[in-house]
C-alpha cells in the first residue's frame, strides 16, 4: 500500500506552528519583578489545563495547586509575618511587617503542591517529578500568553503552618510558589543559554571485538 502524499500546505502550517512553539520555549526565562495585570480567568484556565498534561506514571494525578489572588494575598501575607515572628520571638511584630508585602509581589500567586500516594507502586520521586513537570507546563503557558513567572521556595514553604493555611492535607506537600504577572522590565534580554555540551552527552558503545 502506498503511503498518503503529505498535503504541502498542512505540512507547512504544522512546521510554522512547531517553530512558534519552539521559539516560545527557547525564549522563556524567569521574570522579577512582576506587576499588574495578571492572567484573567480564561487565561488561568488555559494555564492550569496545560499543567494537567504533564507526564503522570499510573495516572496518580499528584498535582495540587492553590490559586491566591486579590484580597486572599493578604491572608498569605499574614502567615508570612506569623512565621517570621515565630522564628524570632524576641523581635516585635512590626519588625516583620514588611514580609507581608511578599504576598503582593505579583497579582497572582500559585501554591504548588503534591499529593503523594504512599500505597502506590510508583516511587515518591516519580510523583514529585510529575508535579515538577506540571509546574514547568505552567511556566511555559504563562510565558506563551505574554506574562512572566517566577518559581520561589524558601524556608516558609516547608513550614506546617503554611501547609495548614493553604489547606494542604497530611499526605500533601507544598513545593513552592509561582508568582505570575506582567514583567516590569519587558525589554530585558534573556540570559545567555548554557552550552549544551556541558549538560548533554551521548552513550557510545565500545566497538565489537573482531
What does this entry look like structurally?
The chain has 210 residues and is α+β, with helices and mostly antiparallel strands. The chain has a domain at 31-68 and 101-185: NADH Oxidase (3-Layer(aba) Sandwich). The chain has five helices and five strands. The chain has helices at 8-27, 41-51, 72-87, 124-144, 160-165, and strands at 34-35, 63-69, 108-115, 148-152, 172-183. Strands 1, 2, 3, 4 and 5 form a five-stranded antiparallel beta sheet that branches. Helix 2 (41-51) runs antiparallel to helix 4. It is globular. The model has no long low-confidence stretch (mean pLDDT 93).
* Rg estimate, integer Å: 22 Å
Tally of extended strands? 5
- How much of the sequence lies in strands comes to 15-25%
What are the segments in which pLDDT stays under 50 over at least 5 consecutive residues?
none
User: How would you characterize the largest beta sheet?
Assistant: 5 strands, antiparallel
User: Can you tell me the CATH topology of one domain?
Assistant: NADH Oxidase
The CATH class name of one domain reads Alpha Beta
Please count the helical segments.
5
Strand/helix succession = HEHEHEHEHE
CATH architectural name of one domain: 3-Layer(aba) Sandwich
Structure class: alpha+beta
- CATH superfamily annotation of one domain: NADH Oxidase
**Helix residue percentage:** 25-40%
The end-to-end span amounts to: 41 Å
Estimate the global geometry from the Cα principal axes: globular
Would you tell me the overall average pLDDT?
93
